[in-house]
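Final report, closing paragraph on structural work. Over the funding period we assembled a curated collection of sequence-structure pairs, and we close with a single example.
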Amino acid sequence: MTAAWAGELKTVPVGTDVYALIGPTGARTADNDALNCNLGFIVTDQGVVLIDSGASREGAKRIAAAIRAVTDRPVKWVINSGSQDHRWLGNAYFAEQGAEVIALEGTAKTQKVYGAQHLARLKPVLGERLAGTEPVTASAPLAGDHARLELGGVRIELMDLGDAHFPGDAVVWLPAQRILFTGDLVYLDRLLGVMPSSRVLSWREAFHRMEALEPVVLVPGHGRVGDLAKAERDTGAYLDWLVEQVGAAQAEWEPLDEVVARLADAPQFSHLENFETLNRSNINRAYLDFERGGE
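Its predicted structure, as stored:
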């Protein structure tokens, strides 16, 4: 597939009038405006549907430039797939341009909980490039865990399959083309990150619900565009391993430091980017999650 560049975002066609915006898999930096993630957009006869809006006002401008390189149609909707900074902190910029911000209730609720914290953590990274960023959420969040939408004849489904990387994470499903934008439910090419708010058992269950959709094209939250088989290798197998190994160790009250030491190598996953920096902390956080019952 052909690709165009806008800053650090690589624009990749993934279907008819459907594009992924692929960001770097490394750390958030001022140079990439914290866009170390994947986003996407759909071009319809009535305008553009943007999937996630970036971590800042400046990041949102980069996204808008990437869209303009493909179409001059305006962004009509911004759909948020999650509550981590680069999923939604660019909402205000697009809302000012006339776009409607769309999110499920669970996503918007979590955004409000974490918005100030995420802005504080971004300040040392982005510095002056964070200026003008406002934590704007959907004005009328959608009730329930499954919404069916349509714009310009394109049917879009927004689904919360269960708490994962953050509570209220959602996926965007295009059933006609069987394309799935997973948000932070799926990581490809790099190791997923377990956060203090992540729920590992629920994450694994959400992943298996995602499998049942049988997507043909899968745009992960991080990493290159892939398919279900690769998602099962890079994300599903690791979630299974955390549950089966760390969960079992915690159930037996094996000391945490011994669990981390015993499982730190995990050669079956060591090829994934960021393994060295994330695996130990993932084990630690997963253990604590299991200790509190995954609640």
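Helices lie at 57-68, 85-88, 91-96, 105-126, 200-211, 228-251, 256-263, 275-291. The chain has one domain: 4-228. We thank the funder for supporting this effort.
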